[in-house]
Design goal:
eight-stranded antiparallel barrel; 9 strands; globular; mainly beta; single chain; disordered C terminus; about 100 residues
Length: about 100
Amino acid sequence: MLSGDWTGKTKLTIDGKVEEDTVYLSLKQTVNIVTGTAGPTLEQQSPIRNGKVEGNRIILEVPVPNGVFKFDLYLRRRTPQRRRRRNRPGSDHQKRKWTPSG
C-alpha cells in the first residue's frame, strides 16, 4: 500500500534553467484509487486528482497555477521511482525525475 507521507527531491528544467526542488506527498490508497495532497512544502499542498494504481505504476495529477503537474511513479523494490511532468498552456510536456529523500 502507498498510504502515508512521502518526500523527495527533484531537478526541474524550465526554459533551460535547472532548479532543485522538494515535493511532499500525503497519499491514501483504496484498492487502485490514490487520493491525498502534494506540494512543495508541508504547508502548501494541493489536492491530488485522477490518482490511480496500475500494476507497479502510480499515476496522479496535481493542479498548480497555470497548469498541472503530472506524476508517473514506478514502484521498484519498495522504493517509488518517480517522473513528474508539468503541463503548461502553450508548452510541451517536460519530464522531471526525482528520488525519495532520507
